[in-house]
Structures are given as C-alpha cells and as structure tokens.
Write a structure and sequence with these properties.
Blueprint (H helix, E strand, L loop, with lengths): L3 H14 L4 H18 L1 H15 L3 H23 L1 H4 L7 E4 L2 H8 L4 E5 L5 H10 L4 E5 L5 H13 L3 E5 L3 H9 L3 E5 L9 E5 L2 E5 L2 H9 L2 E9 L5 E5 L15 H18 L12 H4 L9
Parallel strand pairs: 1-9, 2-5, 2-8, 3-4, 3-5
Antiparallel strand pairs: 6-7, 8-9
Length: about 300
Amino acid sequence: MSQPVIYASLCAYRKFVSLLPRKVASRLGGAIGRLVYYFNHKKTLEAIARVEKYLGVSNEEAKKIIKKCYWHFGSAATEFARLPKDASHITDFVEQDGVEHVTRPISEGRGVLLITAHIGNWEYAASALAHLGVPVNGLGADQRDSRITQMISDLRAAGGVKPLGKASDLRAVIGALKKGEMIAVPIDQDAKEKGLASPFLGHTASTPLGVAKLASHTGCAVVVGACLRKPDGNFVSRYLPPLEFAGGKKFGEDIQASLDLANEKISDFIRENPWQWLWLYPRWESVERGLFNDNRN
C-alpha cells in the first residue's frame, strides 16, 4: 500500500535533521515526541496505566515516565534518520561496556545471539558493533509502503548492518549464526498462543520461544544487551556475560528456565531505565484478555 505523504515527509525530515548538529537534532525529535504525548490521548492513557500496573508506581510517577518515554523515542527515531551521517564516528558517542562478551565468541568463530528489547537506541547498538568489525545482521519487517521498508533497510546498511530478511526466515537466521555472525532478537513482544508463559517485570507474559530453540540448535553464545541513553545525550551499550546455568548447562537446553533467565535480565534493564522502554506496546495483552493461559501449570 502506497503512503506518498508519509514517505515524502520522512524523506524531507531525514534531509533536514541531517543538516543539524546531532544533539540539536535529537532534542528536536524529543520535542516532537513530547507533542505526540499530548495528542495521542488514548495510547498515552493506556501506557500510563501499564506503567502503574507493571512497575507498581503512582499515577503521577507513571505520567512522568511516559512523558519522558515519548521524548526518548522521538529522539531515537530522529537519531536513526540521520544514521548515515553519524555512523562513521558512532563510537565517539556510544560507549561500549562488556563488548568483549560479543567480540570474543565472534573471534572464536561462534555465532552470537544478542537478546535485547525495544529499549534505548537499538539501531545505535547495532551500528556501534558493526563499527568494531562484528558481522551484524538486521532482521526486518515489511511496512505498508515498500519504499519505507527500503528506507529502513538503507539506513541500517549505512550503519554497517547487513540486511538478512525477515525474522521468520529461520534458514537465514540459523545460517548466519553457524557462520559465526551476530543476530539481535527482541523478546519483549507478545508471542500470543505461540509463546511460553514467563515472568516479564514479574508478571506472566507470552514470550517467544525462538531464542532458546536457536541457541540449542546452533550452539551459539547468548548475550543480553542494550544501548542506553545517558544524561549527557550520549549512550552506553551494555553487554552481560553469556547466559549459562550452574553445572555447565547451556542456554536453550531447558526452554522454560532459559526464557525465565532472559526475561529477568531484560526486566532489570527496564527497571533501571523505565522511560527508555516502549511502554506504548501492549506486552501483556494476550494474558490480560484471557487469550493465553499460563501453560506452566
């Protein structure tokens, strides 16, 4: 489906923000995001209620988090739009913490499955790793307008990320991991009836099984990470040691325990940086609506 007005607007915005200094462009994007907070009334109220329920905070605190959340994602979208300009010097403003947990397995010829979430600036994380020589593959999803799909792919390619195809293309994903490359997979999406019940922020959620099955099938290293915004407008990409269990049991051997562990690590990132996570997405919807049962019982 063609969306000529949206596509033309995105093209014009890309060109404009690329003319500005990075932090000025980021603040502009944040201001636009803040406006959406006030005009997207229904989604805003739903997100505030989500924060109250799943973080256990007051309504006033939830409003502050969501207002800042809109600002953050407005900034992140703008930062992605100008990635071709910033990619060559991205390590000037993206600090790496624990990156050896990614680079060491890659240097040994092992693939890396990076478990992440829609938190911080995941596009910066991928580009910063690519800048260090990590073979990063990007999984895409089709947009309504194929030109917008191509625009997203081109922006990622400019950041050094190789387009791999759709997340549903398991053959390509497995092939990349077996070749010793990296795939990033978010696990903060509602897998509905296809998922497994696992605590996310301490509340049952339908969690995608793919990361555990991929790890078990390929023997890749499994690392949790996120690229988080700092108060000065720069970023830090934090990577945890590869996930394993006591006694040498590998991630993926026990699917339930593996998903519980991955969700626990991602939940820690969110609790520490709640305004940088995408609360606008209904993570627990299938459980809330009774469409998904806690299949651990």
